[in-house]
Write the C-alpha cells for this entry.
Amino acid sequence: MRDIVDRACEAALYADGDSGLDTGASLLAADTARWSGAARELLVRGEGYVRQAWERGWRPADVVRLVRRDLDETHVRITGDLVAAEARRYARLPERWTDAEVWWGDDAGYGDALAARERTDRFSLATSVLEVFRLLIRLPSIEPVGPLPGDPTDALEHAHIEPRMLGRIRALLAKAEATNFPEEAEALSAKAQELMARHTVDEALLAARGAGPDRRPGACRIGVEPPYEEAKAVLLDAVSTANRCRAVWNSGFEFSTVVGFESDLEAVELLYTSLLVQGTAAMTRAEAAQRSGGRKRTKTFRQSFLLAYASRLGRRLTETAEHTASEVPDNLPALVARDVAVSSRAEEMFPRTTTTRLRGATDLAGWEDGTAAADRARVGGGERRSLPG
C-alpha cells in the first residue's frame, strides 16, 4: 500500500497543474479493496507534513487560516484531522497550540470515517487530501513564535493574567460588546484596559525583584483577515503598543506577529478581539444612519470608518495605559526594562521590517463616524505598521 501512496504523492505534489493531482487521486481511489489502507497511510503521511510545517515556524491556527483562504471547508476539516492525529503523539502540547481531538477513534477507520463525514466519492476525497498535502509542503519558513510539541523548553513557566482578574476583564469586555449604549461600552472598555495596565505594572515589579517567572518575551500570531485588513492591522498595532507589545503585520499570510510577555499577549488578544467586535457593530449602526438619511454607503465608507476608529483608539489606549503607570512613579525603571526586552526580542525575530503605506481614508463621513465611535469606546495606541523584510 505504501508504494501506491508514494506514487500518488510523487505524481500530485511535485508537478505543476491539476493533471498530477488527477493522476495521484486516481491511483489512490482505483482499488476499492485497498482504499482503507491507502487512507490510513495518507493520514500517517499527512502527520509528517504537518510536523514539517511546525518545524518551519507554522502553528495549527496559521495553517488552518491559510487552508480556509486558499481551499475550502472540506480541506479545512482534513487539515484538522492531520493536526489532531499528529498531536496525539505528545503527552503535552505547547501553550496556544490546539485543543483538537481525533474524532474517528483510530487510524484504521479513517478512510470510512472520512467518506461518511464528507459524503462524497473516493476520488474527490483523495484529491482534497492531496491538495492539502501540496499546500503543506510548499509552506515557506517563517519566524517561530514558540516551542514545538515535545520540545523541552515548553516546560518553562510563564506568567499569565491571574484567573480572577482574567475573568473580570472578560466579563467587562463581554458587557461592552453586548450593550447598545455607547457611554456604557466606553466605561467598560476603559476599565478593562486599566486592569490590564495595572497587571503589567505589578508583573514588571515582580520581575525586577526576581520574583516573576517570565525571563524573556514570547510571541503569538493573530489573524488579520480581509475585508479591511489594513484598518484591522492598525487596530491590532494600537492595542499591542498600549499593552507594551510590538506587532509586525504580514499581509501576504494575513496575520500579525505580536511580541511581548505572556500576560500582555493575553491582554492584546482579548482587547483586540473585543474592540474589533465593537467597531464592526458601531460601523453597522453608522451605515444604517447614513442610509436612513438617503446617502448610499460603500466600501470606502467602511474602510475610512475603521481606519479612523483604529487611529483614534491608538491615542486613547495609550493615554489609559500611561495614566495607570504614572500613578506609581517608582514603577518606571521596571517598565522601561520590560519595554527594552520586548523591543530586543522583536528586533531579533524581525531584523528587517519595512513600513507600508496604507490606502487613504477617502470618505469624510466614514472618518468622522469612525472617530466618534472611537471616542465612545475610550481606548487607544500607536500607529506603527511593519512588514517582514
Q: What stands out?
A: Residues 262-292 form the longest helix (31 residues).
